[in-house]
Design brief:
By secondary structure, the chain is mainly α. The chain has a domain of about 70 residues. About 80% of the residues lie in helices and about 0% in strands. The protein contains eleven helices and no strands. Helix 2 crosses helix 8 and helix 5 packs antiparallel against helix 8. The protein is globular, with a radius of gyration of 18 Å. This is Iron ABC transporter permease. It is a multi-pass membrane protein. It comes from Desmonostoc muscorum LEGE 12446.
């Protein structure tokens, strides 16, 4: 958005964030569904990592070409809570609330879907609509988060697996626990980013990557062994 529109308004940032989140979700699902077994969690994770690498390469090329864009967004690109704009927060707040309500309301349906799509259909669930509603909720939440703080990675990868250690398959409880634990993990990472190289401050996305990258490798290896 900065490269194309210069220094756009908050409305433009918000719209571009949601468009990017929606397009990325569609591409990840499409690429993940091409793998063996269809859109499994592992296939979606690998597709997301591959697409992230591609988009990062494009972003790097843009930053090399445009020094102005680099100066404006270099700290935001690493993911940071520092210097956040309260107006951007209030701009995104309605979308966050809608996404949270949808996510929590879909807890029962997602629990049923986790038993398998055939089982869910046998229980009378309209799986296509559940997938669409879940995707909309994810796009709203992810787009809002990125618009406010930048791409803070690995929180969404690590936290659900931690929660699954003590809450097995009931997503009516998994989702709110993920929200609370994710906020706690982000807060701890932000504190670490502020004090590790004091008086300088690291982007919080760097701190979450230190934890998330090894966890991603462990997750991929454990899935392959199974």
């Amino acid at each position: 958005a900065t490269f194309v529109f210069g220094s756009p308004s908050l409305n433009v940032y918000t719209i571009v964030a949601f468009l990017g989140a929606g397009a990325t979700a569609i591409l990840v699902y499409f690429l993940g569904s091409l793998g063996r077994g269809g859109a499994t969690p592992l296939n979606l994770t690998v597709a997301g990592a591959a697409l992230t690498a591609l988009i990062s390469s494009i972003t790097t090329a843009i930053l090399i070409v445009s020094q102005r864009t680099l100066e404006e967004i270099r700290f935001w690109l690493a993911g940071s809570l520092a210097g956040g704009d309260i107006n951007m927060f209030f701009q995104a707040l309605p979308f966050v609330l809608i996404g949270l309500v949808m996510a929590f309301a879909l807890g029962r349906q997602i629990t049923t879907m986790s038993l398998g799509e055939d089982v869910a259909k046998g229980l009378g669930q309209k799986t296509a609509w559940v997938k669409i509603a879940t995707a909309i909720s994810v796009v709203l939440l992810a787009g809002s988060s990125v618009a406010i703080a930048g791409p803070i990675g690995f929180i969404g990868l690590v936290v659900p697996h931690i929660v699954r250690f003590y809450i097995k398959a009931n997503y009516r409880w998994i989702l709110p626990h993920c929200a609370v634990l994710g906020a706690i993990l982000l807060l701890v990472a932000d504190i670490g980013a502020r004090v590790l190289l004091k008086p300088q401050e690291l982007p919080v996305g760097v701190m979450t990557a230190f934890v998330g990258a090894p966890f991603f490798v462990y997750l991929a290896k454990s899935k392959v062994k199974k």
